[in-house]
């Protein structure tokens, strides 16, 4: 989503450097007026998909807050204006660079399965549930991690209290934001299932109709919920009245009886919420072109998969490669990394994940030798064994890439002290489960559908089957790149389900290897290969000459109208920051700085 938002309360200026390309899932839309994709200046920077959310973060930076404070404020505002992609009913992954110590830290705030869940969570009568039946149900709802992530980040590195940081979002929920074309289109795409739940209709289909572009959408219930969290702390969501309301909603989905929809009840209980904890853990680290690339470790596959692909590409001079060779090598590295991800990555609390070995150059070299410039590797490609690398080895059974909802959201923040946050948060697919918690103003996630519903091959262990308290595998890849002196070069991330990995990888190589300006690396037309028979291409590549030249090598393609919606920040000399966002995708993003440079 994205759109023209009310900026009367949070007016901030930014500098436009360039404008350009791409397209959203439903139809091509132009960048929304009032949003700019790139800004340069001093005092800190914020980039998100939404102008009101970016402005909330800038307001905090202007009032002396640091990058962590601003990230929480921006995320809370996205819960208002991007409610189908994020919110306190979901989870995410938070990556933080501490400028004083020159170190990177991460928080795994992924949703967890109920303690009563087992490997058969999504089977019925011995067969996997149809995906649509699982999504719009209490069964798909995991314990939310977003509120706990905010509090943990503030406890560890913040300088302001949660109550202060929620005020811009509380105000935005109370006063409303302006509906744009993207918000209306995403509401329309979910209208049928939203109508199953009266509370969702009341919130997102005012008067029982689709919201009108240009109208103001208010959410007074969420404003009250934010105010309650500000007064009582996030514990109110995990142990208080809000927790009781979540459990009641999941266990007894409030369906309109006239809809005829069978919303299967979930198994989330009070003990699941009360026992939830985020994981403060070490990041993944990959050396690339003399830089250090940091991201999130499992339960997300983002850090290991992006890192492995970069290691595979390390020995190819992408800066001098032709466009065809560059895209070919990028596609094949993605294919291989996804093959290995499917076999080895799951929740490390339950699975033996060989994270260090997956990120070893030795393993990457053993896989890179599979790539030939005049031929294409077939998919599904079998995984390698990072514990015992065999050069150019093939063997074992391929694991297909599970579906992940695409309408996550990402924000990137830097402050005047040089601290940086890359934070991706989600409620899974557009609209999550479709179920609004009555009286609370937020949608619940459908994150548990990121688990494998059943083993792809009963003879091969699947690390992503459900389990009690287990985190489903994710592709979220918030990334921070440091130079050899430990100072930030760039930070970025994207929504897009499993395409997050390829979006981050392509943007990094576009920026670091192809030397595109960050905003142009973000805007560049995308390709996404996830160990599938066909590589997905956005229209600018699908309709162009490059596609034919790649097909001549053996590539097969299918059209994807839009892949991802990235944001990033770049450190410039002299204490200056550049914030960058999408030019067109999802209505265009919003880049802002505290003090724009002339």
Automatic annotation (TrEMBL):
<dbReference type="GO" id="GO:0103068">
    <property type="term" value="F:leukotriene C4 gamma-glutamyl transferase activity"/>
</dbReference>
<feature type="region of interest" description="Disordered">
    <location>
        <begin position="380"/>
        <end position="400"/>
    </location>
</feature>
<keyword id="KW-0317">Glutathione biosynthesis</keyword>
<dbReference type="InterPro" id="IPR051792">
    <property type="entry name" value="GGT_bact"/>
</dbReference>
<feature type="signal peptide">
    <location>
        <begin position="1"/>
        <end position="21"/>
    </location>
</feature>
<comment type="pathway">
    <text>Sulfur metabolism; glutathione metabolism.</text>
</comment>
<dbReference type="InterPro" id="IPR043137">
    <property type="entry name" value="GGT_ssub_C"/>
</dbReference>
<comment type="similarity">
    <text>Belongs to the gamma-glutamyltransferase family.</text>
</comment>
<keyword id="KW-0732">Signal</keyword>
<keyword id="KW-0378">Hydrolase</keyword>
<keyword id="KW-0012">Acyltransferase</keyword>
<dbReference type="InterPro" id="IPR000101">
    <property type="entry name" value="GGT_peptidase"/>
</dbReference>
<dbReference type="InterPro" id="IPR043138">
    <property type="entry name" value="GGT_lsub"/>
</dbReference>
<protein>
    <recommendedName>
        <fullName>Glutathione hydrolase proenzyme</fullName>
        <ecNumber>2.3.2.2</ecNumber>
        <ecNumber>3.4.19.13</ecNumber>
    </recommendedName>
</protein>
<comment type="subunit">
    <text>This enzyme consists of two polypeptide chains, which are synthesized in precursor form from a single polypeptide.</text>
</comment>
<dbReference type="Pfam" id="PF01019">
    <property type="entry name" value="G_glu_transpept"/>
</dbReference>
<keyword id="KW-0808">Transferase</keyword>
<dbReference type="InterPro" id="IPR029055">
    <property type="entry name" value="Ntn_hydrolases_N"/>
</dbReference>
<keyword id="KW-0865">Zymogen</keyword>
């Amino acid at each position: 989503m994205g759109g023209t938002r009310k900026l009367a309360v949070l007016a901030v200026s930014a500098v436009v450097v360039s404008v350009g390309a791409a397209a959203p899932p439903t139809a091509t839309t132009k960048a929304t007026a009032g949003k700019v994709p790139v800004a340069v200046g001093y005092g800190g920077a914020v980039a998100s998909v939404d102008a009101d959310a970016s402005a909330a973060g800038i307001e905090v930076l202007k009032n002396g807050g640091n990058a962590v404070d601003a990230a929480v404020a921006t995320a809370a505002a996205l819960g208002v204006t991007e409610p189908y992609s994020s919110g306190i009913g979901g989870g995410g992954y938070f990556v933080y660079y501490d400028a004083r110590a020159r170190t990177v830290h991460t928080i795994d705030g992924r949703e967890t399965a109920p303690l009563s869940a087992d490997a058969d969570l999504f089977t019925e009568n011995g067969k996997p549930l149809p995906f649509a039946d699982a999504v719009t149900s209490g069964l798909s709802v995991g314990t939310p991690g977003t509120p706990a992530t905010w509090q943990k980040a503030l406890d560890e590195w913040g300088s302001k209290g949660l109550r202060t940081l929620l005020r811009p979002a509380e105000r935005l929920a109370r006063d409303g934001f302006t509906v744009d074309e993207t918000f209306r289109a995403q509401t329309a795409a979910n209208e049928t299932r939203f109508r199953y739940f009266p509370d969702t209709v009341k919130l997102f289909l005012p008067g029982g109709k689709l919201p009108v572009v240009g109208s103001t959408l208010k959410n007074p219930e969420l404003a009250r919920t934010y105010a309650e969290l500000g007064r009582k702390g996030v514990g109110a969501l995990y142990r208080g009245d809000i927790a009781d309301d979540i459990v009641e909603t999941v266990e007894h989905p409030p369906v309109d009886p006239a809809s005829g929809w069978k919303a299967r009840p979930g198994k989330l209980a009070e003990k699941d919420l009360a026992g939830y904890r985020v994981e403060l853990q070490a990041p993944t680290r990959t050396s690339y072109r003399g830089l250090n690339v940091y991201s999130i470790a499992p339960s997300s596959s983002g850090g290991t998969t992006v890192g492995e692909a970069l290691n595979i590409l390390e020995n190819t001079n992408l800066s001098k490669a032709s466009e065809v060779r560059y895209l070919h090598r990028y596609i094949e590295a993605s294919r291989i990394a996804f093959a290995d991800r499917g076999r080895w990555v799951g929740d490390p609390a339950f699975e033996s994940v060989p994270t260090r070995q997956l990120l070893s150059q030795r393993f990457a070299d053993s896989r890179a030798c599979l790539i030939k410039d005049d031929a294409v590797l077939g998919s599904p490609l079998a995984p390698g064994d990072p514990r015992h690398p065999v050069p150019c080895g093939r063997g074992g059974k391929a694991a297909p890439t599970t579906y992940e909802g695409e309408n996550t959201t990402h924000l990137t923040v830097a402050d005047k002290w040089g601290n940086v946050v890359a934070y991706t948060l989600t409620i899974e697919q557009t609209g999550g489960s479709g179920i609004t918690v009555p009286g609370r103003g937020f949608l619940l996630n459908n994150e548990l559908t990121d688990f494998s519903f059943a083993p792809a091959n009963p003879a091969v262990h699947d690390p992503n089957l459900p389990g009690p308290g287990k985190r489903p595998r994710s592709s979220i890849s918030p990334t921070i790149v440091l130079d050899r002196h430990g100072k930030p070069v760039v930070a970025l991330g994207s929504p897009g389900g499993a395409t997050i990995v390829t979006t981050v990888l392509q943007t990094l190589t576009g920026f670091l290897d192809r030397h595109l300006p960050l905003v142009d690396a973000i805007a560049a037309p995308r390709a996404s290969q996830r160990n599938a028979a066909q590589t997905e291409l956005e229209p600018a590549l699908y309709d162009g000459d490059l596609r034919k030249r790649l097909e001549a090598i053996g590539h097969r393609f299918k059209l994807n109208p839009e892949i991802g919606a990235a944001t990033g920040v770049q450190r410039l000399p002299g204490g200056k920051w550049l914030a960058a966002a999408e030019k067109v995708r999802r209505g265009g993003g919003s880049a802002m700085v505290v003090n724009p440079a002339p």
